[in-house]
Each structure stands twice: as C-alpha cells, then as structure tokens.
C-alpha cells in the first residue's frame, strides 16, 4: 500500500528465483519435463549461525528464513497449499530464550495433490546447505549444493571434494546480481517485474499459517 500510494516500484526480495540453476528447475517444470509434479522438497540450512543481535531483530525464524522456501515451492508449483503442518524446535538455548526456533520441518498439501516438504536449520557447520528436488510422474529435477571448487580428489582411502560454499552471499552471488539488474531494467521499463506484490502477500499468508500450525500443534487449512 505504501509503495502504491507513492507510485513507487515494489520488488519483493525473493532472490532465489534469479539463481540460474533454480530458474532452470522452474523452467523445466513448466515444460512438463517431469510430468505431473508429485513432491517438491527444499532443504535450507544456514551458515554460519547468525549473531544474537541479528536474531533479535530478524522477525523470528518463519518470516526471516521460511518465507523464501515457501515462495520457491509455490512458485515452482504455481499453486498455494490448502493445508500446512509444522513441527519445530530450538536446540540453541539463546534462541529458545527469544521464544524462537532454529530447526523446522513443514509439510504442505496442494490442490493438485502434490506435497511440499521443507527442512530448515539456522546452522549447518559444513557450509550453506540449500537443495531442491522436484519429483514427478516423468522423472526428477534437482538443484544441488555448489562446492567452492569443481574438483574431486580420488586417493587410496576414497575421494574428497572441496567444501560447499560458506554462506548465502557466496552461494547466491549470481542471483543477487541478476536480481539487481532486473530491478534496474524494471525501473527503466525494459522488463516487467518477475516478483509481484501478490507473490509477497501469498508467501506471507502461507507463513502465517505455518507459524500458527507450529504454535497450535495442529494442521492449518488455508
């Protein structure tokens, strides 16, 4: 409403939509390369653990982190879930003291029958862990973690790879650049915005239901 009243451009910061690999998954789903989508899974584990000062102003876990994965699943599906269920826990005492959580599991059911699954954590000690899997009647698509180097060491005791990228600025650096370029192009009327106000409202609506499910311990119908 504020942007509309001032006649300002509004672009919700769902940067993962601009990641080339994730975008390719979306495009291939639209091309029906996996047939009828039956399951969409997202794993999203942050690195490093955010500071206590940030956690206090983050808006709590669901709206800070969960909303991005909700957006990705709804974007890929082209649907809004009709039922959500959430379980969550705080393994870190300083997060529990904030009445917040650090580990989340979500199940969503869509009108098409497809099931969405989200697995999230505030901290993965091995790096930024973000993966997507789309399973359908005709196959599967994945967006996997990126290693710091695309090399593998094979030796007498097995094999090893360089670590995955440390945090989201490294993992999604290209996505941030593409998002900013898109924003500038929209400002100059070269492109139509790929992320609408309705997209942001939709994801907030679903996240509110997920948070309600966690607090009540019951499935929530939207």
UniProtKB/TrEMBL annotation:
Entry keyword annotation includes Oxidoreductase: yes
GO terms for MF: oxidoreductase activity
Protein's name according to its UniProt entry: GFO/IDH/MocA-like oxidoreductase domain-containing protein
Organism taxonomic ancestry: Eukaryota, Metazoa, Cnidaria, Anthozoa, Hexacorallia
Keyword vocabulary terms for this entry: Oxidoreductase
Span of domain GFO/IDH/MocA-like oxidoreductase: 25-141
Superkingdom of the organism of origin: Eukaryota
One Pfam short name: GFO_IDH_MocA_C3
Species of origin: Pocillopora meandrina
Family in the record: Belongs to the Gfo/Idh/MocA family.
GO terms, biological process: NADPH regeneration
A single Gene Ontology CC term: cytoplasm
InterPro entries named in the record: GFO_IDH_MocA-like_dom
């Amino acid at each position: 409403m504020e942007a509309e009243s001032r006649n300002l451009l509004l672009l919700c910061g769902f940067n993962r939509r601009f990641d080339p690999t994730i975008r390719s998954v979306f495009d291939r789903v639209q091309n029906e390369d996996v047939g009828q989508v039956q399951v969409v899974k997202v794993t999203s584990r942050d690195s490093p653990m955010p500071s206590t000062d940030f956690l206090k102003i983050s808006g709590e876990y669901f709206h800070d982190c969960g909303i991005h994965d909700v957006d990705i699943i709804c974007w890929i599906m082209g649907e809004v879930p009709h039922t959500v269920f959430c379980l969550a826990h705080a393994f870190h005492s300083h997060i529990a003291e904030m009445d917040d959580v650090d580990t989340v599991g979500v199940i969503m059911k869509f009108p098409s029958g497809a099931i969405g699954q989200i697995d999230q954590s505030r901290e993965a000690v091995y790096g930024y862990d973000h993966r997507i899997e789309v399973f359908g009647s005709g196959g599967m698509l994945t967006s996997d973690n990126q290693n710091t180097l695309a090399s593998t060491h094979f030796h007498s005791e097995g094999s090893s790879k360089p670590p995955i990228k440390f945090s989201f600025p490294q993992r999604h650096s290209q996505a941030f650049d593409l998002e900013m370029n898109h924003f500038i192009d929209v400002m100059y009327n070269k492109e139509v915005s790929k992320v609408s106000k309705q997209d942001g409202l939709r994801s907030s609506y679903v996240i509110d239901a997920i948070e309600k499910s966690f607090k009540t311990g019951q499935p929530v119908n939207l």
